[in-house]
Amino acid sequence: MREPEVDPHSRADIDKLVRRVLHDAGFREPPVDIGLVLSALNLDLSFYDLEDPGLLRRLRHQILIGTRRLADFVEKVQLKALLLFDDKRVLLDKTLPQLKHDWASAHEAGHQIIPWHREFCRGDTELTLDPAWHDLLEAEANYAASALLFCGEEFTGDARDTEPCIASIQALRQRYRKNLLPTARRYVRHGPDRPMFLVVSTAKWDQTPPDQRARVRHLVFSPSFEKRFVMPDPESLRREIDAHTRSHRGGPVGEFQCRLSDQNAEMHLFHAECFYNRYYLITLFVLRGHAAEVILVDHNVASA
Question: Of the N and C termini of the chain, which has fewer Cβ atoms inside 10 Å?
Answer without folding.
Answer: C
